[in-house]
Amino acid sequence: MPPENQGVLPIMMLHNRVRRLSAVVAASAVLAFSAPAFSQDVTDAHLKAARAAVTAIHATDPFDNILPQAAAALEQQLIQKNPDMEELIGKTISEKALSLASRRADLEKEAALAYAKVFSEQELNDIAAFYSSESGKKLLDSGPAVTRDLVKAADIWQNGLARDLAQQVGETLAAAAKAKATAAPADATAPADGTQN
To answer: What is the pLDDT of residues 80-105, one digit of tens each?
Structure first.
C-alpha cells in the first residue's frame, strides 16, 4: 500500500465499525419504541399527570447511565482496535454522546405513556402528590434500606418457622413410632385367632 494511503485504511475501518454499531443501536431503538401506539387515547392533561408521576417516583432514573455506559464501552472497544486514534475517538464519542443526550426526552415520553395506559389521570395525580410530599420522598429515599431490613427479618422468621415446624413434626412422628413399637410386643403375645385361654 502506498505510504500516502496507509492512514486512510484505519480511518475507513473505524468509520465502518462506528456505522455498523450505529445501525445496531438504531435498530434496537426502533424495536424498543415500536410497541402499539396508544398516545391518541391519552389527553394532554392525562399525559401531564403521567409525566408528573414519573418525575415524582423517579421512574426513569435507573436509565440515566445508559448513554454514558454505551459511550464508554464504544470508546474502549474502538481504542483497543485503533490505539493510535485514542484522542480523536475520545473527542468524537464525547461530542456525539452529548448531541444524543437530548433524546432522553423520548424515554420520558414513553414512560409517561406507559403509566398513562395503566393509571387514570386522577390516580396519576394522587401518585404524584404523594411522592412529592415529605412522606413520599422519605419512602423513596428510605424504602431500599427498609426493604433490606425486612428481607433480613423475613429470612430469620423463615428459618425459625422451618426449624420449629421440623421439630414439632419430628416430635409427633417420634411419639407415633414409640407408640407403635410399644404396641407391637403386646400384639405378638396375643393368640392369632383372637381367643383367650
So the answer is: 999 999 999 999 999 999 999 999 99
Q: How much is the pTM?
A: 0.58
Domain ranges of the chain: 41-132, 134-169
The region, left, alpha or beta by phi > 0 then psi within -120 to 50, assigned to residue 58 is left
Residue 57 · residue 127 · CB < 8 Å: yes
Contact 60, 108 (CB under 8 A): yes
List, for the chain, all residue ranges whose pLDDT scores fall below the cut of 50: 1-16, 18, 21-39, 197
Q: Is 197 helix (H, G, I), strand (E, B) or coil?
A: coil
| Cβ-proximal residues to 11 (8 Å cutoff; 6+ apart), any chain | 85
Whole-Å CA distances, 59 to 43, 47, 54, 62: 21, 15, 5, 7
